[in-house]
Amino acid sequence: MHIVIMGCGRVGATLATKLQTNGHSVAIIDRDEKAFRILPDDFEGIKVHGIGFDRRSLERARCDEAIAFAAVAGGDNSNIIAARAARQLYGIRNVVARIYDPKRAEVYERLGIATVPTARWTTNQMLTRLIPGQSAREFQDISGNVSMLACDFHPSWVGTTLADLEKLTASRVAFVTRYGEGSLPRRDYRIQEEDIVHLTLETEREAEVSALLTHQFEEDAE
């Protein structure tokens, strides 16, 4: 998969390196050509010297082929403009922006752009939001037996009720987030596109449930 990153600081370089290590194609954009020096010598991705929300820079980074876009430059305004450009101009679904101001983060979450405030940022959290088919662990109890996942879904799961979801995954829905706003819906609530469903389940079943949710929904599984 091809992924584009705007910002070649410590965060951007770490993301680019990990993504390449995991076998993905990577392009990284920065307005300061010297910033690319932080990348390892074996980095094989595309380095684009330019502005991350300029269409020419985005084209050179092959945004038309990208499945994800991460905006992790040093300023909120640049990050959110670049994130919106990636979403609106190229239809990239998995778009994440690092935001310093938590009030802004809430606003942009409601616009459908995932944001990661620096206070709770980790490379692993960013990676799970960028790569389709991965769910982010948000909580684990002190014993390590129970976890809560923010789940990604195959599009075919849209329209499934929470009751059916719980039955098929042998888990419980803690709450649902839509455009940055959490709610405690009834069990007949149907999953909609862009929903983030927070599931509680046994930690040992995380990989199994994540794999199930990112494959074609089959009614016969009931």
Low-confidence stretches: none
* Rounded average pLDDT: 86
Structural class: alpha/beta
- Rg from alpha-carbon coordinates: 18 Å
Judging from the principal axes of the Cα atoms, what is the shape? elongated
- Note the main sheet: 6 strands, parallel
Task: Please give a structural write-up.
This protein is an alpha/beta fold and 222 residues long. It has helices at residues 10-21, 55-60, 76-90, 102-110, 123-130, 162-169, 206-213, and strands spanning 2-6, 25-30, 46-49, 68-71, 94-99, 114-117, 136-140, 146-151, 172-178, 181-183, 196-202. A 6-stranded parallel β-sheet has the order 3-2-1-4-5-6, sandwiched between helices. The protein has a 5-stranded antiparallel β-sheet with strand order 7-8-11-9-10. The longest helix is centred in the middle third of the chain and has 15 residues, at 76-90.
Protein topology:
Blueprint: E1 2-6, H1 10-21, E2 25-30, E3 46-49, H2 55-60, E4 68-71, H3 76-90, E5 94-99, H4 102-110, E6 114-117, H5 123-130, E7 136-140, E8 146-151, H6 162-169, E9 172-178, E10 181-183, E11 196-202, H7 206-213
Parallel strand pairs: 1-2, 1-4, 2-3, 4-5, 5-6
Antiparallel strand pairs: 7-8, 8-11, 9-10, 9-11
Summarize this, please?
The chain has 7 helices and 11 strands. The protein is of the alpha/beta class.
